[in-house]
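LAB NOTEBOOK - FOLDING QUEUE
OPERATOR: T.R.
BATCH SIZE: 2
PURPOSE: Compare the predicted structure-token outputs for two unrelated chains run back to back under identical settings.
PRIORITY: normal
REVIEWER: second-year student, initials M.K.

ITEM 1
FIELD SEQUENCE / FIELD STRUCTURE:
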Amino acid sequence: MSATPPSHTEPDAGARKPGGPLRRGWTTGACATAATKAALTALLTGDFPDPVTITLPKGEMPAFALAHERVGDGFAETGIVKDAGDDPDVTHGAMVIAHVERGKPESGIMFHAGDGVGTVTRPGLPIGPGHAAINPVPRRMMSEIIEEVCAEHGVAPDIAVTISVPGGAAIAKKTWNPRLGIIGGISILGTTGIVHPFSCAAWIHSIHRGIDVARAAGLDHVLGSTGSTSETAAQALYGLPEVALLDMGDFAGGLIKYLRAHPVPKLTIAGGFAKITKLAQGALDLHSARSQVDMAFLADLAGERLNQDMKARILFANTAAQVLEIMSDTKIDIAADVADRALATVIATLRGAPVQAEIIIVDRKGAIIARTEFS
């Protein structure tokens, strides 16, 4: 379902990135599973295991300290503070609480969304509308723990679990959840239980879920943007519904490759000159740490329209914006050339998928400076 990267800006990686080796963390799904095990154990025995140990899908066995314990008539609950390690995860430090109680005979295991956990309202996600935004792997992990603990104590696994994240509604505003139609809070996520620092996986996962929701809604046009400025400019042209707006960020490849297998008839990619130049060069990851603007590429693209002095200025330019300014002064429409080359990269990556694409380049003030036709 959703992921933790903000919907309109890149995470402020420098805020928590240390100088030494990066420390891994734990997903909300792992925290919810550990909290469920501790709460259920307390419900059945009266004692809270602290720390509580769980087995992750790949066999690791982390231990979690309990930050909250409560037991009452027919229920028990525990809370675990999520530690995302050195990843700039917006849910880092959030309390994940599991409230468990016995269900009716043969009711089985039931999951509910408590305060700060979202509810799915649109089709196209791994969990259907009307259900708690707890993804399939965390559901399976919690179910296995419940069955194991119940079997140890000779009781039927008829258990109702409510997962809460105090403050989760505010946190969710920094994620894709509002656009995906997940209301009321965050999603409980994770496939391995482990958060790998500065991983691209969470963001790309959200792009894929956004495409799934757009397809389920029957949309024929989606917009992938590198940021809020380009999104606003392109959206002014089309007035697309919010569910069509895909916060591509730097992950053009994650967007295009998923559309190759799960096509939507029309795709608009909008971004700033530097990001789209990288796409024109053939890069599918547009992050500054993983791809750079090649000034020689821009000089070659301008070709014979440049004299030797202009070419030298471009080759020694510090930024793509400086190149754009130099060429604009001489009436060379390099932005249009870059847009055409970027479109060629997109078409090549789509490999014949039934998707028509266009490129829009936006300047820092939000004005459109280049736009291709759909192809």
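ITEM 2
FIELD SEQUENCE / FIELD STRUCTURE:
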Amino acid sequence: MTRLHLSAALIAFTLPFTAAAEPAFLQTEKHAVKIETIAKGLSHPWGLAFLPDGRLLVTERDGQLRYVAAGKLSAPISGLPALAVGGQGGLLDVILDKDFASNQKIYLSYSEPGTNDTNSTAVMQATLSGDSLKETKVIFSQQPKYNSKYHFGGRLVQEANGNLFVTLGDRGSRREDVQPLTTDIGKVVRITSTGEPVSDNPFVAQADAKKEIWSFGHRNVQGATLDSSGRLWTHEHGPQGGDEINITKAGLNYGWPLITYGEEYGGGVIGKTAAAGLEQPLHYWVPSIAPSGMSFYQSALFSGWQQNLLVGSLKFGQLVRLEIKDDKVSHEERIRIGSRIRDVKVHPDGSVYLLTDEDNGSILRITPMK
């Protein structure tokens, strides 16, 4: 697959945005847009979901799940599991079950504590009932657990048939466990809504492999979304440079740590940039943008963004818009927001919502100017 390397020279504009000057009006390549702050006062918000009644459901990394309505934050919802909060760990993603309107089920990813200060990424299913979670069940727990505060992955995506993709990291210092299929380290896994490996996963018939594995050779996947045909797209953090986007297919090896376009922090070669049997990225960034949440834009509200991939940037405080043609990135625009972007979600009405990863984090809403 052809590789495309776009540098910071393609930044479209760098107009500053601060919460004090609201709303902000920016001219992007395709649209003049308005950026409004929907809510403030969140502690490192991580995941966002839209409830059918118009409220928002948002996670805070240090351990709160809240409703947001009319700009106000609810008290924390009770019933969360024990969390290993620290570093990059804590409460992570939240999604609604595809049948939420009838079953009130949600899924949460989080860092789950083990023994002797170990932890790993886990997923819980729960029934959302008023101000509490009921019928809670841990449906996945990454194995093995390590004493680490880094690289939890944690994005959740549900297929139309109800199966779940869960993205997982290499835990920051366990590169040797990424390639073997005997661990959940550095993998994307695919499970049913109750936690069993899906019966047509690629390694279910391999005796020495974990049955839940969908793909492997990942470093730290923190963005995942489905395209209009239902294919899984992910992005992952490289080390120093080499963040990459992939169409993440069953059974394929995405190369970490054998191949990468990044280098060791402070300099130093890691493996190669290519090798037989290892997938090349669809797109990569050098220098790193520290990508976060990611969504395909498939609504009519922003007519110029149709089928574009929207990616948050933690490092540069940007919303990155990628135009896709024939499964390749044909153009990149960087829209300067001015705060670390943790999640990107498209509302049913077509507006784009962002979470800012800060002590006093915000929910931002982007709409086109009329």
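REVIEWER COMMENT (ITEM 2): The longest strand covers residues 32-42.
FOLLOW-UP: none requested
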